[in-house]
Design a protein that fits this description.
It is a multi-pass membrane protein. This protein is 68% helix and 2% strand. The protein is an all-alpha fold and 245 residues long. The longest helix is centred in the middle third of the chain and has 29 residues. 26% of the residues are buried.
Length: 245
């Protein structure tokens, strides 16, 4: 136990301390001898990591749901009403992918964060553009298709870089990105040149089926603690180029 005089001295010492910047990723202990603290006043600072689940199953599942809906619309099986499609596009693929991207950012998964956030903005912008052109004039409809086509062309370039990254992940993600690339190519032609919509619908269906398969495999493999459902090994490891240097 300490007396009141010793406690006053401890408070005074604590007020005059100048702590340097701490690395909170490691445990830090202040020894009592350095600042004349008794043993019971040793201070230990720890930083516990934030543990969150892998959001990739959620993000990819929402992609499968919206691609299935749009594919059925492209084949004429369901209504092509923009007013009915846009809420599903905005809420499911827009907001849920954005949440998945934010969670992946907390998990320091740069690929998941970039892909989910970028495609969340894609779906949000596409749904918003559909609403804007639906309630606009004929000039707005034509101009909106051209603007959307130019934006989708930009995503063709972005998605190609994602294809290269997925070479180091697994084969199913690689196949999904390749299918999305064809969706974007045919969608650009449809918006800018007025081509038929069935090629876009075909690759939307392929993307949807692959996305549902990935979601199912991801959930089962996490529960099993290993690869019970096949996802495929990486096709090429970019890290091998760094090791060779």
């Amino acid at each position: 136990m300490t007396t009141s005089g010793e406690e006053d001295k401890l408070v005074q010492n604590a007020r005059t301390m100048e702590f340097q910047q701490l690395d909170l990723n490691s445990n830090v202990t202040f020894p009592s001898t350095k600042y004349n603290f008794p043993e019971e006043f040793n201070v230990k600072i720890t930083k516990k990591p934030i543990v969150v689940c892998d959001p990739s199953a959620i993000g990819v599942c929402t992609l499968g749901m919206v691609c299935l809906m749009l594919c059925m619309s492209s084949f004429g099986a369901t209504s092509s009403s923009v007013v009915l499609q846009a809420p599903w596009i905005i809420v499911m693929s827009g907001f849920l992918m954005l949440i998945a991207g934010i969670v992946d950012a907390f998990r320091r998964n740069i690929f998941g964060a970039v892909v989910f956030v970028m495609y969340a903005t894609f779906w949000l912008a596409l749904g918003g553009a559909q609403f804007a052109t639906h309630f606009g004039s004929e000039d707005d409809v034509e101009g909106g298709a051209q603007h959307s086509g130019a934006a989708v062309f930009g995503y063709i370039i972005f998605n190609f870089s994602c294809i290269l990254v997925t070479l180091s992940l697994n084969k199913i993600l690689f196949y999904i990105m390749v299918a999305i690339e064809f969706v974007l190519i045919f969608l650009t032609l449809e918006l800018l040149e007025g081509t038929a919509s069935w090629p876009t619908g075909l690759f939307l269906l392929i993307t949807s089926l692959l996305s549902f398969y990935y979601c199912f495999a991801n959930l089962i493999n996490h529960l099993a603690g290993g690869e019970l459902i096949w996802l495929g090994k990486p096709i090429f490891l970019w890290s091998s180029l760094v090791q060779k240097k």
